[in-house]
Amino acid sequence: MALPVLYSYRRCPYAMRARMALHYAGIKVDIREVSLKAKPAHMLQVSPKGTVPVLIFEQGCVIEQSLDIMRWALSRHDPDNWLGDVAAEAEIAMLIVMNDGDFKRALDQYKYAIRFPDHPPTVYREHAEVFLRQLEMRLQQHQYLLAQGLSMADIAIFPFVRQFAMVDEPWFASAAYPKVRAWLESLIALPLFDAIMQKYPTWVD
User: Fold this and answer.
1) What integer pLDDT is reported at residue 76 of this predicted model?
2) What is the reported pTM?
3) Which residues of 8-33 are buried (b: 16+ CB within 10 A; e: fewer)?
4) Tell me, what's the pLDDT at 205?
């Protein structure tokens, strides 16, 4: 059988977390790196939303949301129990909602502040810091967001925090989030992250 096809974009945080879950679960896929300025016709045909990641199976089934891809992969193989128990699943879901909602909105405004001239970038950064403070408090209690071991929450959230840190690296390096910095550095240093960040040529239909 042909491998599932994953339309991806290397630097997209949504695609990153999907690739990490698939790699961790040992699920091989045919990664097709897209150009966001010239998206493949096939990808748009099967997923008109036009964003990555999109996972397509030989039988025609399509999973087009990163969290759904993560959950599908972890349902197949989750050796370190990233999903956790029922209580952990609820906590993971809550953190991801906060990340994908208010934090992501503030992150986009901070990163692309020129598109949002109503306020200076520092205002948008302060909005994003509301979430960072919550992460800092959690990480004062244990190495990762829920416990001493990785969970789906860490993998789903950290690509966005990485993006935030890169907007103004000197500021982030001295900001009042030492635990967040250590957490971020530990995740970037994972062999898993290195494995999913290899470069692929742009796919052309």
Assistant:
1) 97
2) 0.96
3) bbbebbbbbbbbbbbbbbebebebbb
4) 82
User: How far apart are alpha carbons 54 and 154 in whole angstroms?
Assistant: 21
User: Is 91:54 a contact under the CB 8 Å cutoff?
Assistant: no
20 in Cβ contact with 155 (< 8 Å): yes
Q: Which residue has the tokens 């959950």?
A: 71
Residues 6+ apart with CB under 8 A from 146: 84, 88, 91, 92, 138, 153, 154
**For residue 4, what are the CA distances in angstroms to 80, 104, 116?**
24, 29, 39
pLDDT at 87: 87
List per-block mean pLDDT (blocks of 10 residues) for the chain, which spans 205 residues. 94 98 98 96 96 95 97 97 92 98 98 92 97 98 97 98 98 98 98 97 92
- In the prediction, which pLDDT does 163 show? 98
- How far, CA to CA in Å, does 75 sit from each of 15, 80, 83, 136? 18, 12, 9, 29
Token duo for residue 77: 């193989």
Structure tokens at 113: 């502040």
pLDDT of residue 192: 98
For residue 178, is the peptide bond before it cis, meaning its omega torsion is within 30 degrees of 0? no
